[in-house]
Amino acid sequence: MARTPSNFDLPLGTTCPAFELECVLCNKALGRDDIFGGVDDQLCRKGLLVAFVSAHCPFVLHMQDAFTALAKQYAGSIATACICSNDAQQFPEDGPEGMRAQGIRLGWDKAFDKNSEGCTIPYLHDPSQETAREFHAACTPDLYLFNAQYELVYHAQFDATRPYRQSDANAGVERHPTIHAEAHGADLRAAIEVLLAGQPPLPNQTPSLGCNIKWRD
Question: Residue 84 maps to which CATH number?
Answer without folding.
Answer: 3.40.30.10
